[in-house]
Every structure is written in C-alpha cells, then in structure tokens.
Amino acid sequence: MEEDAQPHNGPKKRKEENTMSLFSEESWKRFRETLGLKESPLGIYYTNHKPEGVTPKEGITGCMIGLLQNARKRGKTVFFDKSHFGCPGGGYYMGFLEKARPNIEYFLSCGIPGEMEGERYIKTPELARKYFEMMKPIPAAATYCVFKPIEQFQEGTIKPEVVAFFVPPDILSGLFTLTGYAMETTGAVKAPFGSGCSTILTYPLKEAAKEQPQAILGMFDVSARPMVEKEALTFAMPYSVFLKLLENVTGSFLETESWKKVLRRIQS
Q1: Residues 6+ apart with CB under 8 A from 260
Q2: Contact at 8 Å (CB) between 76 and 148?
C-alpha cells in the first residue's frame, strides 16, 4: 500500500490502513447533544491520496475560509494543494507556499505608498517581520490538505490531525470550559494573533507536537470575518485534545443546572 503523509509531530511515516482509533458513537452523540452543536467540527489532515470533493480553481480565487462552507454546511470534502489554495495566505499557512506574497510585512502593516495598501493589523513592517519569524508554518506533509466533517472519518482510514469548530459564543463557552477541565489546567486555551486559516490549522498543528498542547481560539481576522456568520468564532485543537473532550463530558459542569440554562438558550 502506498505510504501516506508523514505526521507533523514525528519522523515515522504512517499508512492509511488500520491507523484510525475512532471515538465511539455513544461518546460523540453525548458530546454533540450536551453542547448543543448545530454543525459538525471539521477534521483536517494531509494525504498523498487525492480525495473526491471540492477544491478551488488553480491560482488565486478567494479566501479558503469561504470555501470551507462546503464542508461546514453541505457535508462535502474540501481539499487544497500547492496549485489550488484559494488565496496566497491560505497556501502559506497550509504549508504549500514559502511566502504568502512579496512584501508581506508591508501588506500586513503600513503598505507601500503608490504600490500597495496595507491592512494595518500590525503597526510597523519591523513588527510584522518578527511575527513571521515566530509563526512560520510547518511545511505541508503531503500533496493535499483535506477538510471534512468529523463524523465522516471511518475506522481503518487516516485520522485527522486537527479538529476545528465554528461556533457561536454560548457553545464556545462550553468548549472553552470543557477544554480546561479535560486538560486539567486553566491555561488550556490561547488566542494568538493570526489569519483565520492560521488559527484553524497552523497553530493547532504546532500544538500537536507539544507535551501539553493547547486549543486555539480564533477567527478574529478582520479580513476573514465576512466569510463566516457574524456570531461565529473558531475553536481548533490537535486531535488528541478533541479525544480528551469526548472522554470528559461525564462528571463535568456540562451535567450541572448552570450549563443546562445555557443549553436551553442554545436550543431555543
């Protein structure tokens, strides 16, 4: 069998055969219903096997976050590669491109008069350079980067490396609090500066290699906000953290009247 992608957090290659240790249907149902999830989170992984699904046209065609609506709302598989990445930023943060664009430090900050308007998200080009030195994405481990609803992963297939939720504040409060409970720390979540695509993939991939990984709160990217619902934020994590969330619903605050009050509002 053809070898698949090398995992981001280790040198040993994996195969798509018999690597999936899926969560039980019972634990997933309990998790989904107790939190009041209205859409499935997306599982994200790299593979050398071209999937069937939706991919952008070659070159620059638009924000990848918008294309993910096909996976979020329609249950389709969405995938990208080094030639089909939607926008340069997406190609960069997925690890397919070495640079997001020329003079990116000026684009993110003050711009170049007569040549480029700056986004002004970071005050100076020097500060923008420091940001890119710090957050350089992990090179893509395989040909394709794939996004699909988590329940579509089947036993005996490749597992997701990252799980990303798109949720409103009430559900986010449950995910945030459950993550701290499950990871046994009040510092289980962080909200770093970054593009929408970096907070659902780049940062969580880096967290996967850590001994004590954190979940990433995101979608504060002003440029990406029009691609999602006005009440939606993202909450992304390594797959290992997602499994811990499933295991820790029972016994947590999610069984208390405090949460049930919130859940009734979510369901109303």
Answers
A1: none
A2: yes
Place of tokens 């297939």: 157
Is residue 93 within 8 A of residue 123, CB to CB? The reply is: no
Residue 9 in this model has a pLDDT that exceeds 80: no
**All residues at 6 or more sequence positions from 227 whose CB lies less than 8 Å from its CB, including other chains:** 63, 65, 66, 69, 196
The tokens for 83 are 């030639």
| Alpha carbon distance 40, 160 (integer Å) | 14
Are 44 and 201 a contacting pair, CB within 8 Å?
yes
Q: Do 207 and 214 form a contact (C-beta atoms < 8 A)? A: yes
Task: Count other Cβ atoms within 10 Å, centred on residue 34.
Answer: 18
> Residue 9 is which amino acid?
N
Amino acid, res. 266: I
CA of 182: how far to CAs of 174, 175, 178, 212, 241, in Å?
12, 10, 6, 12, 8
Q: For the chain, give the longest Cα–Cα distance.
A: 60
C-alpha–C-alpha distance, residues 191 and 218, integer Å: 6
Distance between CA atoms of residues 214 and 198, nearest Å: 15
Which residues sit opposite 148 in a β-bridge?
Answer: 43
Are 15 and 1 a contacting pair, CB within 8 Å?
yes
How many residues does this entry show for the chain? 268
pLDDT tens per residue across span 109-166: 999 999 999 999 999 999 999 999 998 999 999 999 999 999 999 877 789 999 999 9
Rounded to an integer, what distance in angstroms lies between the CA atom of residue 154 and that of residue 268?
Answer: 32
CA–CA distance, 31 with 263 (Å, rounded to integer): 12
- Total-model pTM: 0.90
